[in-house]
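Lecture notes, unit on protein representations.

Consider one protein chain, 141 amino acids long.
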Amino acid sequence: MIIVLQSVNTVIPITKTHVKIKFMKCTQPITIAASENEPTLCCPPLLAGRLESANIAQLATIFRVLGEPARLQILSLISSQPSQEVRACELVETLGLAQPTVSHHLKVLYEAGLLAKERRGTLIYYRILPDKLTMLRDALS
């Protein structure tokens, strides 16, 4: 019997016979073979995950959007405001970014469904949509 695990040769006794274990880095499931013709999985496959396949692509997109530090900072700044909303011009100086860059980040967050926007006269106010953040929190818990 040969058991493939990680990267050193070791022999361990099993009842009256010895098993040679060869350790090597595995990128696929570990297999245990009674002979080289009969491989079997050492662990049964998972039957189901917590995430539904329909939501996985949407979650991946949102997490990709949140991978930009400036966008995380924008969400943090918005959530820390007493009114829970900000204008784009308020973020420019605080973030130290150019106005077009801030507008781009706000647009990406809006298109990902993390922000809502409301036009009041010539100004646009942005606020966080708590349902999306709850969905992300639930996916990670």
